[in-house]
Amino acid sequence: MSSHKLSFTKVAETADVPAGALLKVKIKEKEILIANVDGKYYAIDNTCSHKKGDLSKGTLDGKIITCPQHGSRFDVTDGKNAGGPKMMMFRSKTDDLNSYEVRVDGNDILVFQKSTWGM
């Protein structure tokens, strides 16, 4: 019998992600982007939903991360698409990203994960 347990996983320390900074972390096989916006930490998928660009290499302006590949923009506070990829003079729509609950415990940044093994 499998016990499903909800848990938080330590992914970094607060010193690793100063205000305005980004950090790519990996939980199991999933890449997560940690962003520090005005001292508050957020976590979303690190891979752009348009062409799989690495968002950790993008630019953070306030709470908006811009993908370095084609310019798709996402709100790091909730993963919502704030503007699709720019093609010539037009922007199209792309899918939202997953967002994850973040807690800070002392200096530890913790991201919410569901454990299928009860650990």
Care to give the gist of this entry?
This protein is mainly β and 119 residues long. 0% of the residues lie in helices and 50% in strands.
Give keywords.
119 residues, mainly beta, Rieske Iron-sulfur Protein, four-stranded antiparallel β-sheet, 0% helix, 50% strand, disordered N terminus
What do these coordinates show?
The chain has 119 residues and is mainly beta. It has one domain (15-115): 3-layer Sandwich (Rieske Iron-sulfur Protein), CATH 2.102.10.10. The chain contains no helices and 13 strands. It has strands at 5-13, 22-27, 30-37, 40-45, 59-61, 64-66, 73-75, 81-83, 86-87, 90-91, 99-100, 102-105, 108-115. The strands form 4 sheets. Strands 2-3-4-11 form a 4-stranded antiparallel beta sheet, with no helix packed on it. A 4-stranded antiparallel beta sheet has the order 5-6-7-8, with no helix packed on it. A hairpin with a 2-residue loop joins strand 2 (22-27) and strand 3. Residues 1-5 have low confidence and may be disordered.
Quaternary organization:
single chain
Q: Indicate the CATH class.
A: Mainly Beta
The name CATH uses for the topology is Rieske Iron-sulfur Protein
Major sheet: arrangement of strands: 2-3-4-11
Number of helices: 0
**What CATH architecture do you see?**
3-layer Sandwich
- DSSP strand count: 13
